[in-house]
Design a protein that fits this description.
The complex is a heterodimer of chains A (about 625) and B (about 200). Chain A is of the alpha/beta class. In chain A, helix 1 runs parallel beside helix 2. Chain A starts with about 25 loop residues before the first strand and ends with a strand. By secondary structure, chain B is α/β, with parallel strands linked by helices. Chain B has a six-stranded mixed beta sheet with strand order 2-3-1-4-5-6, with helices on both faces. In chain B, strand 4, helix 2 and strand 5 form a beta-alpha-beta unit. The longest helix of chain B is centred in the C-terminal third of the chain and has 17 residues, at about 180-195. The radius of gyration of chain B is 16 Å and the shape is globular. Classes of the chains: A alpha/beta (about 625), B alpha/beta (about 200). The interface between A and B is large, with 70 and 83 residues. Strand 8 (about 190-195) of chain A pairs antiparallel with strand 2 (about 35) of chain B, so a sheet runs across the interface.
């Protein structure tokens, strides 16, 4: 058996339960585990999120331990709702934690800006997990801008140990200042693992009381002006906090200095020689006096930060007064890149300017042509069957495919080729309306079940309201698959707060759509018929392709599966199953197609793919 | 001393768990440890890699090119792809069982010969422990224990200052009880091959 994490304790992680462990003990924790532990040590009473890489593991942990631990945790329908619920909890005097990926903050930014006005009564920490290099995202936006935009204090850890310390300190800082604290991580902190010293876990305080104060919590213009004035006054307190923060410190001596933040600090600190360091952990507001003092007497200063030159621009401004002759090396000087995450090679690129250590020659092995290995839809994935059916229903007709965010974005890859346009979560539905209005092309939109609840519904209402004509296919795999199989309104909650699954068909009808059909994508012929009818009727149509994610079923312990085989006598090696359907369980065995038993999940969708009926139930 | 281990394979092969076992063993041996993992989209059958660094002064979660002391490869093409990370004289422990990617299955790309890959590794100056770990795992019960075979082989290669008994016991702590005995035998099989050859 392949080793899988044991099922007792925190099943999603393996290892001892996160809530155990005493002060002084050191554990090898993922950045996200360290942040979850910080919440336990802070006595957080309320936590909310919408899943998104690289922040998802925190939710998987909370989902498991929150009932026994006595704090409230929810998967909210989207990040905006998560921000609002957590903001209300903190306004009621309960420490709250809301976490999301960087682009989730775009969705949550509206209430977040107002929370920067109203402030909070108990500690509130907002985690923005950024993704430089776009490991699993549509962009690599630098969310440090949000802390400045919202005038929120920002902490920026470099390691899992610091992530725990800063998350914990964030709640205290939030209470001292009376506003939310922005904790900004990146993939290489969330998904790094390091030794983390534990502190004592604190009993959560999950109940508060909301004391009414409209001048503070109702930002109508007259009151909001007062809030704005208070926010400006708070900036002075924030400046004092950052100048005295233990997260901003200097190391080493010399006339060449390095100013660094985030994971970039670890690369610079380990691989640069003979420099003085100013390590910045509280980066909004910046400790301008500390920076000015560091710049004095320096001949050259390297600013080492990923993505946008926020520190660098501040350093250039501060240097004008503090040390006009200092040479500032960074992105503006053309030495360091704006795009993508840094790594040890980024440090090596500075070797003409400064001494670099611990880097060796790179081997040059013989050139061998290696096949690429992009991620693919799993064997038996119902999305593949749906894509294939829509392609068949289109026949030779062209269609603009407006897709969305989830596993099914992988439908982009050949031979499926089912992705022409994508902006963000929920965009498939709204964008389809635009294509439908201005082109004479057929328009097909795809959206997953969790994404539909997240932000697809306003688009559907819009389409019905404005009578856009296109086909929307809801890829309903009964879970939030890509991020680790989290529940959503369509599955309902389980446990003490069990809730009824929301009926997508009724929901879509309620949005004003008249043509709504539900199909099982494994029943290929029926799915093709439903799509053909939709393309012919010239009205807005929604097809709900419902079939549970096989990975999720496998996680739960699996089902009996039917064995399928290729009848070699019937197979004419037309390669439809391999070249057009492309299930990873299909193989070539000499001059016929074959099924890899170790991968096949027995869905049977390929039976109707084969034009010769050669795929049969194994006897 | 610092030790840099790069673990590579295909999403779903157990790369994360193997790296966690090594990191835990390094921690229990009293080392500083830094690791880096890839989660999310890449796990859907794509190339995946994971980093374990331990020893005095490790901070960076990434290994510099030319810096890996050990590459633990779950798939031969992925092992070859990672060679720019190896230092001269590094040890590479790799399964030689191909997992053909989609382009190879559909006939658009070709999968290189295993001997060409292993030869290229040796010519590049690496110490190569390459064998059919999946087949060895099958012998003890199931191909899916290949990751235990590889961890055993890594310990047998003595490329890292980690006690093999400690690595073995952390591995077994990490698997469900009913699979412990099987994974123990898989580890031992890999250990013996690294010591004595296949």
């Amino acid at each position: 058996m392949r080793i899988t994490p044991r099922s007792s304790g925190d099943a999603s992680r393996g290892g001892p339960p996160l809530s155990e462990g005493q002060k002084g003990e050191r554990r090898l924790l993922l950045g996200n585990e360290a942040i979850a532990r910080a919440c336990l040590e802070a006595g957080v009473g309320f936590a909310s999120t919408y899943p998104g890489t690289p922040s998802s593991e925190i939710g998987l942990i909370f989902d498991e331990i929150s009932p026994q631990y006595g704090f409230y945790f929810e998967y909210s329908t989207n990040e905006k709702v998560a921000m609002e619920t957590a903001g209300a909890a903190a306004a009621s005097g309960v420490r709250s934690f809301v976490f999301m990926k960087h682009v989730g903050v775009n969705v949550a930014s509206d209430p977040m800006m107002s929370l920067g006005y109203t402030g909070v009564r108990a500690g509130m920490v907002i985690l923005s997990a950024d993704d430089p290099s776009l490991h699993s995202s549509q962009n690599e936006q630098d969310n440090r801008h949000y802390a400045r935009l919202g005038n929120l204090p920002m902490l920026e850890p470099s390691t899992p140990a610091e992530a725990k310390e800063m998350a914990l300190a964030g709640f205290e800082l939030s209470e001292r200042l009376g506003c939310p604290v922005f904790l900004r991580t990146t993939t290489r902190v969330n998904h790094a693992r390091g030794l983390v010293p534990l502190g004592d876990v604190k009993a959560p305080s999950a109940k508060g009381h909301f004391d009414k104060d409209p001048q503070r919590f109702v930002p109508v213009p007259a009151f909001a002006r007062m809030m704005r004035t208070r926010q400006i006054e708070r900036l002075k307190l924030m400046a004092d906090e950052t100048e005295g923060s233990r997260f901003n410190f200097t190391e080493g001596e010399g006339d060449v200095g390095v100013i660094a933040s985030g994971v970039a600090y670890t690369y610079a600190r380990e691989f640069l020689n003979g420099c003085a360091f100013l390590k910045l952990g509280m980066t909004n507001p910046l400790p301008e006096k500390t920076i000015a003092q560091f710049l004095r007497g320096k001949r050259r200063v390297i600013v080492f930060e990923e993505l946008d030159p926020l520190l660098e621009d501040a350093v250039l401004r501060i240097a004008k007064d503090a040390n006009p002759s200092v040479e500032v090396i960074g992105k503006r000087s053309g030495h360091l890149p704006l795009a993508f995450e840094y790594n040890p090679e980024t440090v090596a690129s500075l070797s003409q300017l400064v001494s670099v250590k611990g880097l060796s020659n790179i081997l040059t092995p013989a050139k061998v042509s290696l096949p690429v290995r992009p991620p693919v839809l799993c064997a038996g994935c119902p999305h593949r069957a749906t894509f294939f059916a829509i392609r068949r229903a289109l026949g030779g007709r062209e269609a603009v495919v407006s897709t969305d965010i989830g596993c099914y974005t992988l439908g982009l890859n050949p031979p499926l080729g089912m992705a022409d346009f994508l902006l963000c979560m929920g965009s498939s539905v709204g964008a389809a309306g635009g294509f439908a209005e201005v082109t004479d092309q057929k328009v097909v939109a795809f959206i997953g079940d969790s994404t539909l609840f997240h932000s697809g519904i306003p688009g559907i209402i819009n389409a019905a309201f404005n009578r856009h004509v296109y086909l929307l296919v809801v890829l309903d795999n009964r879970t939030t698959a890509m991020t680790g199989h989290q529940p959503h309104p369509g599955t309902g909650r389980s446990g003490a707060r069990a809730s009824e699954p929301l009926d997508i068909e009724a929901l879509v009808r309620g949005c004003g759509v008249r043509n709504v059909v539900s199909v099982d994508p494994y029943e290929l012929k029926k799915t093709i018929e439903a799509a053909k009818a939709a393309f012919d009727n010239n009205e807005l149509t929604v097809i709900i392709a419902r079939r549970a994610c096989p990975l999720a079923i496998k996680k739960k312990g699996g089902e009996e599966r039917t064995r399928y085989t290729v009848n070699a006598e019937k197979c004419v090696f037309c390669r439809t199953c391999i070249g057009k359907f492309a299930c990873p369980a299909m193989r070539i065995d000499g001059k016929v197609a074959a099924i890899d038993e170790s991968m096949c999940i027995g869905c049977g969708a390929c039976v109707d793919v084969c034009p010769k009926g050669a795929i049969e139930v194994a006897k | 001393m610092k030790y840099n281990v790069l673990i590579v394979g295909v999403g779903g092969q157990g790369v994360l768990l193997a790296s966690r076992v090594l990191g835990e063993a390094a921690m229990r041996a009293g080392h500083e440890v830094v690791m880096s993992e890839v989660h999310g989209m890449a796990q859907r059958g794509g190339s995946v890699s994971s980093v374990v660094r331990f020893g005095e002064g490790v901070m960076s979660p990434l290994i510099p090119l030319g810096g890996a002391d050990v590459i633990l490869g779950f798939e031969p093409v992925e092992s070859y792809r990672s060679l720019p990370f190896a230092r001269a004289g590094a040890t590479i422990v790799t399964d030689t069982t191909p997992v053909p990617p989609s382009g190879v299955i559909s006939g658009k790309e070709t999968y290189p010969g295993i001997e060409e890959l292993l030869g290229g590794m040796r010519e590049a100056g690496l110490r190569v422990v390459g064998f059919e770990a999946s087949a060895e795992a099958q012998k003890v019960g199931t191909r899916l224990a290949a990751n235990s075979v590889l961890l055993g082989a890594l310990c047998g290669s003595e490329a890292l200052p980690l006690e093999s008994s400690e690595v073995r016991s952390i591995l077994l702590e990490s698997v469900r009880e009913k699979f412990r005995e099987l994974n123990g035998r898989a580890f031992d099989a890999g250990f013996a091959i690294a010591r004595n050859g296949p």
